[in-house]
Design a protein that fits this description.
The protein is about 60% helix and about 5% strand. The protein contains 20 helices and 5 strands. The protein has a 5-stranded mixed beta sheet, covered by helices on one side. Helix 18 (about 345-355) packs antiparallel against helix 19. The longest helix has 18 residues, at about 1-20. The protein is globular, with a radius of gyration of 24 Å. Residues about 1-20 have low confidence and may be disordered.
């Protein structure tokens, strides 16, 4: 028994030491952690830098940890000043490294700093991180062929995890033909565009990233894909804004003006919002939005969306790995996907309620159970209670 206690003590002490080892800090679009975790990683990676100031990996992780701690304050002057200091220190310690070259360009917040991103990519083409900003640059400047070339490289790099590709595939399958889809950020724009370009999945859909939509050349080109047009100057005047600004309030007001202009000018236009779009951006249209899967359709008149849900979800969605992913309990991005997959729940419950009304109890329970699984995976106790309160037979 004494020897056993010694073994336990040794195991426990090793665990404590191991727990103090720094861990890789992934881009927040790949995985995210608690604020305390990022703060701890910042401390641990700082110690690694103190041991070896030329440790480029330590610098990269240290930068990311400081960037993502209290991410809601990322745009504050204090935070930006701290990140700028880290970049300056990196420049003195590892000036010729891939990590410094990439993060210097990224921290400049200048999508037109294309030489910096291209230099970083040439230094290490096995690292796909620069591709995202390079794609954005060429999309904004209407160099579509170059953007397509980079999307093919991004696909070959396998940097976007398969569960996120499945999610975006299902977003595209939530739309009617020739739809306009407004997206929010990296994880609902790059994967969907990559599927369109590389795999020719739903090329009829026009994807407009809301942030990029404040740029005139980009917006007009995207609308022209379906022969739609707007007067950009008048659009920004209606929103009482200057072109190419990027604050959340600017994006919201431009979006409101754009949707109003398009729906008035083209009554039959099919406008959708990805469910990942921030609620404040959609607040103006809330009473006119109808869920169709992982997107919401804007309709000025009441829309019976049950038929669309049945078609999109039951016939076209890829769901096997969403509900049950083999060996999927732990992988990079598991926490992120557990949260994103909560977006399936409203559509699943809508189907469950429909089947309950028409007397197909087993189908109702089937969709309610799928919703419950996702709520449990996401650790959403209130959602779990809500689903259990709906009167379905769920496990």
């Amino acid at each position: 028994m004494k020897n056993l206690l010694v073994v336990f003590a040794l195991f426990f002490s090793v665990t404590l030491v191991y727990g103090e080892s720094p861990q890789k800090v992934y881009r927040i679009t790949q995985e995210y952690y608690t604020n305390d975790w990022y703060k701890k990683q910042s401390e641990l990676w700082k110690k690694e830098i103190e041991k070896n100031p030329q440790n480029a990996t330590a610098w990269e992780n240290y930068y990311y940890a400081n960037r993502y701690a209290r991410f809601e304050d990322i745009n504050s002057k204090e935070r930006q000043a701290k990140l700028a200091r880290i970049i300056e220190e990196m420049g003195r310690a590892i000036p010729d490294s891939y990590e410094y070259t990439l993060l210097k360009a990224w921290n400049s917040h200048d999508v037109d700093d294309i030489p910096g991103y291209e230099k970083a990519y040439k230094m290490n083409p096995d690292r796909p991180d620069p591709l995202y900003n390079m794609i954005t640059h060429y999309e904004l400047h209407n160099n579509v062929e170059k953007a397509k070339e980079l999307y093919h490289k991004l696909y070959k790099a396998r940097d976007i995890m398969p569960p996120l590709l499945d999610y975006n595939y299902n977003v595209l399958m939530s739309l009617e033909e020739d739809a306009i889809l407004f997206t929010n950020g990296d994880n609902d724009t790059y994967p969907a565009r990559m599927l369109q370009i590389v795999k020719n999945i739903r090329p009829d859909v026009t994807i407009i990233n809301i942030s990029m939509g404040t740029t005139e050349k980009y917006l007009l080109r995207k609308l022209q894909e379906h022969n739609y047009s707007v007067n950009f100057k008048e659009l920004t005047q209606k929103a009482n804004l200057e072109p190419d600004e990027s604050s959340p309030e600017v994006k919201k007001n431009v979006l409101i003006a754009l949707v109003s202009e398009l729906t008035n000018k083209y009554p039959d236009i099919k406008i959708y919002f990805a469910l990942t779009v921030y609620d404040p951006f959609k607040e103006k249209f809330k009473s006119n939005l109808y869920i169709t899967g992982l997107a919401e359709r804007y309709a000025s008149n009441p829309l019976d969306n049950v038929a669309l849900l049945k078609k999109h979800i039951e016939q076209n969605f890829r769901l096997d790995d969403v509900i049950l992913k083999w060996y999927g309990e732990e992988y990079v991005g598991a926490t992120l996907m557990a949260q994103m997959n909560l977006n399936y729940i409203p559509a699943f419950l809508k189907l469950a309620e429909h089947y309950q009304i028409v007397g197909e109890t087993w189908r109702a329970n089937q969709w309610a159970n799928k919703a419950l699984v996702l709520a449990k995976n996401g650790g959403e106790d209130e959602l779990i209670q809500f689903i259990n309160s709906k009167g379905f037979h769920v496990d």
